Sequence to fold (211 residues):
Amino acid sequence: MIEIEIRDIHNNIIGKKEVPDTVFNNTASESVVHSAVVAYLANQRQGTHATKTRAMVSGGGKKPWRQKHTGRARHGSIRSPLWRKGGIVFGPQPRDYYIKLPKKMKDTALFKALTMKYRDNEILLLDKLELIRPKTKDIIDILKNLKIQDKSILFVLADKDENVLLSVRNIPYVDVVRASDLNAYYVSLFDNVVFTVSGLDRLLTVKGVTS
Fold:
């Protein structure tokens, strides 16, 4: 078990929380994080890129000139790839970039990414993050209190919080995610990951991690 300090929004230590080694002391290879990030980015691609082959380009049904006795090269269509505005050879066609990873591998990659953050002192645990109204300045003040105002920050909450969501959306280097949606890519994308206690508990529940 690993003990993590619990802080309030004023950066005061108010307790400690024990977390299983699986989450912040994962022994898997770092390559599993790379594989998970590559798969995530690949799965975001729509794969709708396309170019027209000579069969798809309109026109060109008539042979441009007779086969012989013109002194010019033989051509059967002005939509040949050799011609301007002709078809494209070996151009991109619609395809599926989806990479399927086992759920266990995704979880392992997430825990390894969190382990790397923890070892670099880039994991923070807040007792709670509650705003009475949406206000960007309140979030900025919290970040200043925690001394991470110059970092890119990912807040991990148990459930969607509209006030927090509206408060961070105007800060380009701060984002918020539900614990159930957290993955290795999100963890790798930000300098610091800030959990609430309830957010960390939800992550452990969703991933089936027990002490």
Q: What stands out?
A: The domain at 2-28+102-206 is CATH 3.40.1370.10 (Ribosomal Protein L4; Chain: A;). The mean pLDDT is 94.
